[in-house]
Design goal:
Layout (H helix, E strand, L loop, with lengths): L2 H9 L4 E2 L10 E3 L12 H6 L4 E5 L9 E4 L2 H15 L8 E5 L4 H12 L5 E3 L9 H7 L7 E5 L8 H8 L3 E4 L7 H4 L2 H17 L3 E5 L3 H9 L5 E3 L5 E2 L10 E4 L2 E4 L8 H13 L4 H10 L8 E4 L4 E4 L6 H13 L5 E6 L8 H13 L5 E5 L1 H7 L5 E2 L2 H10 L6 E5 L14
Parallel strand pairs: 1-2, 2-3, 3-4, 5-7, 5-8, 6-7, 8-9, 9-10, 15-19, 16-17, 16-19, 17-18
Antiparallel strand pairs: 11-12, 12-13, 14-15
Helix pairs in contact: 1-3, 3-5, 3-6, 4-10, 4-11, 10-11, 12-13, 13-14
Amino acid sequence: MDIKELYKVFRSSEGVNTDSRTLRSGELFFALRGENFDGNLYAEKALEGGAVAAVVNEDAPGDDPRLVRVSSPLQTLKELAAYHRENVLTDKRLPVIGLTGTNGKTTTKELIRSALSAKFRVSATEGNLNNEIGVPLSVLKIRPETEIAIIEMGASHPDDLVPLLEVARPDYGLITNVGKAHLLGFGSYEGVKRAKGKLYDYIAANGGTIFLNAGDKVLAEMASERGLSPVLYGNSGYEILPVTVSEPFLRISFGDIVLRTNLVGAYNVPNVLAALKIADYFGVPKEDAMAAISAYVPSNNRSQMVKTERNIVIEDAYNANPSSMKVALSNFESIVHPRKAVCLGNMGELGEDSGAEHRALLEILSSMALDHIFLVGEEFRKTAGDRYPCFVSSDELKEYLEKNPLSGALVLVKGSRSTRMERVLPAL
């Protein structure tokens, strides 16, 4: 079965699924293989559960005629998604915004989605499904009524973006920033720049348009090297208002108009300005875009502020790297509060730079007026020694805080995904 024939099956289906446990009747099942799983073993179960067909490897067991045998179901999933991207609209080309960066990808994507949704029917990556499986699935969720799509793309190795770009084929591009993250995979900061720059490469090669933070010299240089003339945002016309206990969320003044958000941290200013610029570029009235951004409430442990019975918690525990840690701590330091504490987990995937980056973070902590510093993970244990309390896991810190509760404090909780720092929250 070629892609055109498979596409007919897809268009008559209820969508695509790669997990037989959540499959709904009428969906098209893709049997993916990984180091610890083999979807081929569940293909017949998927058919029994109502799948219209199952795309499997050539050596998959079973003789059901609805088994579509291919050399690689994952590659076929990508090819199907790329074909859908080009053919979902029959009368014109669907505008697709491709988004990547070291920090703020998901928050920026959600802000853009909110702002554009004030005028358009928007399809966007759900959650952080931004890898080689998530991107095709996100593209395949685009419907014929969609007017604009936003596809988030992640990368932790030099060429990770290349196959994602071949699927999403964006007309517009946005890199939120380039920072120190996944250095183990990228090799160096220059490696991060080259990897993220693949989005600019694609846009330049295909005559697209990029949106660029005017204050980011690194991105400006990367765009210039590729001959790109960006649509700029963040160059002037706004003021960041002070953060207080009574006004804890990010507020941005545009002359007589104040945009109040539900986001924590001035580091979210470029994300908000990007969403406003993109909305303006596509003709969304400014007041409508601002209202949509004001109504957006973050989730998934990103830039959230939670008031518990005893404390105020800034929950930014989804991930961490040297760049995001530094801006999070800088923002935390700017908030006026009589009692402050931090619960920080290891920063992962830093390779040979891990020790130096954790030591640099400890120096920042030592210069801050903090009442309590709690650290989690082996990297902090090796670098902090006896300077601060260090725990093997977030569960161990949680147990400690349950026995030694904090009260009346402003608490920042942040760490790499591997440390699961959100597990500390019930003890705060």
